[in-house]
Amino acid sequence: MEQKYQDYSELINALKSTCKVLNLERNSQLHQDVTSLCDYLANPNFQIAVFGPFNHGKSTLLNAMLGNRTLPIDLIPTTGAAITVKYGTTVRTRIMLVDGTEIYRSGTEVLQQFAVLDGNRQMRKDVASVEVFCPHPFLETGIEFIDLPGTNDREAQDILVKDRLLGTDLVIQLLDARKLMTLGERENLRDWLLDRNIKTVIFVANFLNLLEPEEQKQVQNRLLFVAESFRADLPPGFSNLYRVDALPALRARLKGDVALANSSGLAAFETALQNLVGILQQNSGNVRLPRVQAVSSQLQTLLVDKIYKCSQEIKIFDDKENARIEIKQKAQNLIYQGFKTSIYELESWLSLPNLLAKYQADIAVALAENNLQSWQTGTFKKDLTELQNSVIKWLYQAYDFFKSERPEDLKIPFPNAPQLTLPEKQTNLNTNDLSEPGSLAVGGGIGWLLGGPVGAAVVGSISYLLNKNLQKQDEQSTKDSYNQQVAKICIAAAENYLSRFSSQGLSILAEYEQKAAKVIYFEASKEPVEITQQREDLQKFQNEFNQLLAELKKANISTKYQPYQDKPKSASPQPPKQQVYTPPTENTPRNTQTKVEPLRQQVYTPPPPPPNPAEVEAKFRNWELDQEIAQIKANMKSPGTNQKPQNPPKKQAEIDKIVRAYKILGLQPTASFDEVKQAYKTLVKKWHPDLFVNQPQMQKQTQEKMRLINDAYNILAEL
């Protein structure tokens, strides 16, 4: 059953769309092939093209078959355009110009103006198409003849001929029996036709009547060889080689001389042609679809290449980006661990029980000696500053890695000094006060606001009371001496001071932890525009490829490819699961402030401590230096990464290399390997090519710089 052209409308759209997606040049051979093929599929008529070198009698043969001088005939190459001969009730000509102008005339005289080569044997460039309508019964069955310009004359004519051949159902190659095609010409034509699966080709030999009988036999044998070499794909029982003496045939047809028409070979050729066309018309899909398969396979190959290229470029970017994310993740997790350790230590230090255990006695004594400001600036501030700096250090390390948000300094202020209200001093102070338990001066000789030995006695009482572990400090003993009363006031003031400091410090620390979440955090950098475009292109190419395959399948055209599986549009690579620092919420239990008895009857038991800060710091430093550099070197594909250490160089050339390596890294020859690693790390961060992606010239320089740095590091690493 003949397939109608409308069945191919979606296939035509898919072929045209693929050309557009591939952005094929309009003058490229493939684009022209697709255009010709689409026009071919859209045409319901059966087209027969007649072609051959100029002056081979193409127009003469067609005129003989049509029975009149419809087409121009001359001794020079005349046909300057492809002339399509269609059925019409009268002979008339329609010419379409490139600018859209339509010229419609009776007869064919207008062909002399628009369809004939000029004096310089050039085709007119303003002619888009030429059609001749003729009342012939063979044409009325849906047949169209195409009289093509002569080949082997001008390149433009050869290109036009090839473009039209792809869109014809049957090709008639006219041969000059006096001068057959050379082997090279035959092979070139055969290759071009077979590459496009054009196999419905028949040969007609002209001018055989002009040869002597002996020559005719020799030429006939050569003609058989030429025809057989083309391996025509014709129905069984049909030859692909015929003889027609075109000019005698035309004369016979014009005169109505049947005998001459028979002897010229025209009658036999016409009979064979009509029967052949009748069979091919009923199976037009067998003629057309192999050509679609040949041309579409080129489109599929180009799409696959585009898809592969896009996929590879995206994969390279994703792999590199994921490697960077992995490095950042490791840094984040280590910084997180170090920060939490430092927070834990400062939080534990700020807990009131620990502050009381460590500092209450000293503060009470400092109050008794009127020396709180000096003690606070010295011992207390030094301890606090060390812990605060330990916390801040990790946030600045995070900022150095992630550049997310610059951290603020952690500042925990000291409370105002307590204002002591002393009890009324007994007027009858005796020496028994100094002989009471705990009344010996700890800081003997130091003056106090009460003055002299009494002050020293109060200091002694402070030490005594804090170590006595009395159960009820709020019950005043009638036996308390004045010194002990003052000591208790100092102890209570110290507790109040530390309580205010602990409460305020923990509050500030909690708020600082909330802010730290924005610092100890990284997210993948925004994907470059060109990679996003690559992803869109990849999706577009895959969709187009799948659509083309679907339409080919509908037309029963086989292909070696399988559709690409539908995938969600890929965005930029997502970071692997990582430990993001999340500070406690307001409802999360913390080391909250509790009322603590002034004397030391309670023992604070902290939770199990995190890793030792020194171990965390060492672990981070080792990773930062070794792991990051190893990753960078792997990305740079620097040579010598896995080479085994070699013996120290003995030759002068090797010594020179070592000296040069130290110089490249900016080090003295006496530098330790730790200094080498640190210098290498510093230079990598300064000269890595990724820092200069928007500066092509600088990137080339940095690549060379990194090569020298890598080589220098490898040389010194082997010492």
Write the layout of secondary structure elements.
Layout: H1 9-22, H2 29-42, E1 46-51, H3 58-66, E2 83-87, E3 92-97, E4 102-106, H4 111-114, E5 127-134, H5 137-140, E6 143-147, H6 155-166, E7 170-176, H7 183-195, E8 201-206, H8 213-229, E9 241-243, H9 246-255, H10 258-263, H11 266-282, H12 284-350, H13 352-368, H14 372-402, H15 452-468, H16 482-516, H17 529-554, H18 613-636, H19 652-664, H20 673-687, H21 696-717
Parallel strand pairs: 1-6, 1-7, 2-5, 7-8, 8-9
Antiparallel strand pairs: 2-6, 3-4, 3-5
Helix pairs in contact: 1-2, 1-12, 1-17, 2-12, 3-9, 12-14, 12-17, 12-18, 13-14, 13-15, 13-16, 15-16, 18-20, 19-21, 20-21
Q: How is this structure best described in words?
A:
The longest helix is centred in the middle third of the chain and has 67 residues, at 284-350. The protein is α/β, with parallel strands linked by helices and 719 residues long. Strands 4-3-5-2-6-1-7-8-9 form a 9-stranded mixed sheet, with helices on both faces. It is built from 21 helices and 9 strands. The protein is rod-shaped and about 160 Å long.
Query: With helices defined by DSSP (H or I, 4 residues minimum), what is the helix count?
Result: 21
| End-to-end gap | 83 Å
Low-confidence stretches: 1-5, 429-454, 469-478, 568-580, 584-607, 636-650
In angstroms, what is the radius of gyration?
A: 50 Å
Mean of residue pLDDT values: 78
- The helical percent reads 40-55%
- Spatial strand order of the main sheet: 4-3-5-2-6-1-7-8-9
Instruction: Name the helix and strand elements from N-terminus to C-terminus, one letter apiece.
Output: HHEHEEEHEHEHEHEHEHHHHHHHHHHHHH
Main pleated-sheet profile:
9 strands, mixed
**Strand-residue fraction?**
5-15%
Q: What spatial form do the alpha-carbon principal axes imply?
A: rod-shaped
**Strand elements, count:** 9
SS-derived structural category: alpha/beta
